[in-house]
Amino acid sequence: MDTTVSIDEAIESIRELIREHRVDELRKLVIEMRPQDIVDVIERLDSSERRLVLGLIPSSYYVEILDRLSDEVLYEVVVSKGVSKIARIMSDMQPDVIADILARLPPRTRRRILALLPPWKIEEVATLLRYPPESAGGVMTTRIPVFSVDEVVGKVLEEYTVKYQLGLYDKLNYVYVVDRGGELVGWIEFKNLLTASRDRRLREVVQPCPARVHVLADREEAARLVVKYDLVEIPVVDDKDRLLGAITVDDIIDVIVAESTEDILKFGGLGESVRGSYLTARVTELVRRRATWLIFLYVMESITVSVIGFFENVLSSVIALSFFIPLLTATGGNAGSQAATLVIRSLATGEARPYDFLRIVAKEAVSSSLLALTISPVGFLLAYTISHNIVVASIVALSLPCIVVVASLMGVLLPFIAMAIKTDPAIISAPLISTVSDITGLTIYFTIASILLKLLGLT
Q1: Average per-residue pLDDT in the chain?
Q2: Rg of the Cα atoms in the chain
Q3: What mean pLDDT comes out for the span 19-40?
Q4: How far apart, in whole angstroms, are the C-alpha atoms of residue 407 and residue 425?
Q5: Is the dihedral of CA 454, 457, 458, 459 positive or negative?
Q6: The pLDDT value given to residue 279
Q7: Which one, of 187, 287, 196, lies nearest residue 246 by Cα?
Q8: Nearest Cα to 152, choosing from 197, 207, 202, 190?
């Protein structure tokens, strides 16, 4: 099933077979599907339909898809299959994947499954569960080839081959080298190890790692380092630089996707990111995550009413000024959101750091000023065309550049303020920036209008 159409057709076929109670044909259809396509299908089925299909999916398929399921569907699978069967399925999975899945389950269910895993796997998984899911330790694998600097290449290759055949290593590209205290010395690309003289010691062929990441560092930091140094994996160390594991590029890709999704959701005005699939998320959960932020923004936006009320006499003098309130506030909100998007992206990718604050503010001040001067004549012509009043058009033309500059600088400042108070800059959402821009924009607009009208003796 290579296309969206084929998945849609599969869903229709499944629903038809369920309606007609043709269970054997339904089982055959499910088995013929690729595991990856099953995830797309079951997350689009209704709860009752999904429960029936979940019971027909082969256990071998669950090994491949369990970690790809949304939180809601994952819990349904655990309830449907039972803790014992899920534990048997997880026994065939890599420890880092098991840890990721268990971290998404309720604590009681997590403990029950963990207790049923093989003892050696429990030890590996428990080690990973000690670290927060959002940290480098939470996404690393401990199944890596680690050898002492004093080992001989020939012996290392023999041991590596045996352990790899036993499935004790993940698909890694490097052999890691440590000293007697377990501190990371460097790594050797496996193909280089194969061509090295068998009687040489690892200390003679080891290469320094371009980068390493602390086990408690944010997983986003690991992703930034991998991108910066063009790596396929990165070692994870503790405070004493002892090697604990490594993060492979496939996990880094998952991290990048997850972090990007989280930032987009936060910037869209969700105080908390919605985990899992939107299709399977409970309506009550979506409402809960959105309501608080909407109420906060509503209260903030109500300040604009006070601003308009304060300048009521200005509006009553020239009613045409009210025509341009939506235009000016929208332009300010858009300018602020543009600036914030650029800054948040730069902070997220590591292009910008907190110590670049003054440089960024200066750059945005210049660029927003030039932008404002470009927009101002357009604002004047549009305002005059609508109002046929040169005074109103002049007020709009003077206000517009001021609003653009102030909103842009607010868009730059707010993410840095968030960082200063130890908050994710992405939480400075577009709706919040628009709300702040509305308040400052209206204040600027009516202040300029009040001053100009007084100078002209019109109030």
Answers
A1: 85
A2: 29
A3: 87
A4: 17
A5: positive
A6: 63
A7: 187
A8: 202
CB 140 within 8 A of CB 215: yes
DSSP state for residue 425 in the 8-state scheme: G
> If DSSP codes are grouped into helix, strand and coil, which group holds residue 131?
coil
d(C-alpha 356, C-alpha 130), whole Å: 35
Query: Between 142 and 256, whose confidence is greater?
Result: 142
For residue range 209-268, what is the model confidence (pLDDT) as tens digits? 999 999 999 888 898 899 889 999 999 999 999 999 999 888 888 887 776 766 666 666
In sequence order, which residues have a C-beta less than 8 Å from that of residue 50 and are 6 or more positions away?
A: 42, 73, 76
User: Reading across the β-sheet that carries 174-178, which strands appear in turn?
Assistant: 146-148, 174-178, 184-189
Q: Does 321 score more than 80 pLDDT?
A: yes
pLDDT per residue as tens digits for the range 101-133: 998 888 899 999 988 988 888 888 888 888 988
How far is the CA of 279 from the CAs of 42, 100, 274, in angstroms? 10, 21, 11
Q: Determine contact, residues 249/233, Cβ cutoff 8 Å.
A: yes
Least Cα distance to 396 among 420, 372, 370, 368 occurs for: 372
What is the rounded distance in angstroms from the CA atom of residue 376 to the CA atom of residue 374? 6
Distance of CA 401 to the CA centre of its chain: 34
**Edge-to-edge order in the sheet of strand 233-237:** 213-214, 233-237, 243-248
What sign does the dihedral 36-41-46-48 (CA atoms) show?
Answer: negative
Q: Does residue 275 carry a pLDDT above 90?
A: no
Determine what percent of the chain is predicted with pLDDT higher than 90.
Answer: 31
Q: Residue 443 has what DSSP assignment?
A: H
CA 235 to chain centre: 22
Q: Which two tokens stand for residue 414?
A: 């707010």
Handedness of CA 9, 11, 13, 16 (dihedral sign): negative
Residue 403 reports pLDDT greater than 90: yes
With 0.70 as the threshold, say if the pTM is over it: no
User: Comparing C-alpha atoms, which of 457, 453, 437 is closest to residue 320?
Assistant: 453
CB atoms < 10 A from the CB of 249, how many?
13
234 compared with 71, residue with greater pLDDT = 234
The CA-to-CA distance between both ends of the chain, in Å, stands at 71
**DSSP element (H, E) containing 176:** strand 174-178
- In the predicted model, what is the mean pLDDT of residues 138-154? 92
Tell me the C-alpha distance between 383 and 3, whole Å.
50
Cβ proximity of 68 and 39 under 8 Å: yes
